[in-house]
Design brief:
The structure is a single chain. The chain has 420 residues and is an alpha+beta fold. The protein folds into two domains: 195 residues, no CATH class; 212 residues, no CATH class. It is 53% helix and 17% strand. The chain is built from 15 helices and ten strands. A six-stranded mixed beta barrel has the order 2-3-8-5-7-6. Strand 2 and strand 3 form a beta hairpin. Helix 13 packs antiparallel against helix 14. It is elongated and about 100 Å long. The two termini are 31 Å apart.
């Protein structure tokens, strides 16, 4: 039966008698784990911020009427050309309205589904911002502002004002910060907009909107749904877009296909709309984890080399241990215990170093127009990173100690003593 108390005491004495080598091995694990925690926390935090910049305001499913050519041309209606190959040039889009027919019943139908978190109506209109004698083209989107803030985090992109201010102001507008700078306007000022039909409407600026994408901020503004319906001279049921938020993003593609078939509308899922962005995120995450794991593997090789040196320096000790009755397995456990002790101490210190570094980074000021609400460098304090770091430290030190310990197990004490 293995006497763990004796084995651990011998392992401890070996480590203490070669304290410098032990410290170097532990520091290798410490800085490997510390660098892993710092790098993966910072990079995933940055990736999360970049993802949120695009995806927070992107619906899981966007429903609208697509302008497209008629699938059946008039020539296809004649029976005499039924079996012929017809070539029609310069096909024009069919005359179709932007309005979604029966939009409100469709929204109610979606909200009754368990997989749907919310479905919100929108109205998108092309307008002109009037600046003296100059008209600046732009987009005005009619929304239910409080629902947008709840489901799509709109309030994270309002740099001045609040969603409540727009909700309580009948003729209010949430103006894009790019337009505000061009026209030297601020919260509380009034702006005139011109519709494509020539109607002019004055609106009060109740907030400034900044998405972080310059081209969008230069044209985009928001107003209450009813305000935009009144500006366009449309009825209360006039809706041009429906944005759907799901409980699980994986349901977006199958549901979008189903909605297209049921309602004869265009339904675009989030993965299709942001395929390139998702690819970039996956590549960044892959690089982050590859570099992080490499750091841990390098630390493991350091432990392997140091334990190899231990064995060569402790040949006499191994021979004496076997001569007085210790089995090869006992000797192997002694060196395995040394490796695990180094891994445990180095891992704990590494987690502490990583935690300290990430906290320091999270206090460093970081300001950019692309991320208006971010004031410091983003850090992802995910407990799983610490668990994975500690687990990898123990696994890497286990294998780093296993190979040298097998060599110690096979040493013949007679050969060592005879050589002395």
């Amino acid at each position: 039966m293995t006497n763990w108390k004796v084995i651990l005491n011998i392992a401890k004495m070996h480590l203490l008698t070669k304290f410098k080598q032990t410290a170097v091995a532990a520091l290798g694990v410490t800085f490997g784990i510390g660098a892993y925690i710092t790098l993966v926390s910072f990079m995933t935090g940055l990736n999360t911020i970049l993802d949120d910049l695009i995806l927070n305001q992107t619906p899981h499913i966007h429903i609208y009427n697509e302008i497209e050519p008629s699938k059946k041309q008039p020539i296809a209606l004649y029976d005499e050309f039924k079996n012929s190959m017809n070539v029609v040039h310069s096909i024009k889009p069919k005359l179709s309205q932007k309005k979604i027919h029966n939009a409100l019943p469709i929204i109610k139908y979606l909200e009754n589904k368990n997989i749907v978190r919310g479905a919100l109506p929108q109205i998108k209109a092309n307008i002109f911002y009037i600046a003296g004698s100059i008209d600046i083209s732009g987009n005005l989107t009619g929304i239910n502002v409080l629902d947008e803030a709840k489901l799509f985090n709109l309030d994270d992109y309002i740099v001045r004002g609040s969603p409540e201010a727009l909700d309580h102001t009948e003729n209010g507008i949430l103006l894009g910060i790019g337009i505000a700078k061009k026209m030297a306007l601020d919260v509380g000022d009034r702006i005139q907009i011109n519709t494509t039909t020539g109607e002019i409407f004055p609106l009060k600026i109740v907030g400034l909107y900044q998405s972080g994408v310059t081209n969008i901020d230069a044209i985009q503004s928001f107003a209450n749904l009813k305000t935009v319906q009144r500006i366009l001279g449309e009825a209360d049921n006039y809706v041009t877009d429906i944005n759907v938020k799901l409980n699980n993003i994986d349901d977006a593609l199958p549901l979008s296909k189903k909605l297209e078939q049921e309602f004869n509308l265009k339904a675009v899922d989030i993965n299709t709309a942001n395929a390139q962005f998702e690819t970039g995120t996956n590549v960044r995450n892959m690089i982050t984890y590859a570099v992080s794991i490499t750091l841990l593997i390098v630390a493991g090789f350091g432990i392997y080399n140091i334990l190899n040196m231990f064995i060569y320096e402790k040949m006499n000790d191994i021979a004496i241990l076997k001569a007085i009755g210790f089995s090869g397995k006992d000797v192997q456990l002694i060196f395995m215990s040394q490796a695990m002790i180094i891994g445990f101490i180095g891992g704990i210190l590494g987690l502490l170093v990583g935690f300290i570094f990430t906290n320091i980074i999270s206090t460093i000021p970081f300001q950019t127009q692309a991320l208006p609400r971010v004031k410091t460098y983003p850090i992802n304090f995910n407990p799983w990173f610490y668990f994975i770091g500690m687990l990898f430290a123990m696994i890497s030190t286990f294998f780093a100690g296993y190979l040298p310990s097998r060599k110690a197990k096979k040493i013949d004490p007679v050969t060592i003593i005879r050589g002395q």
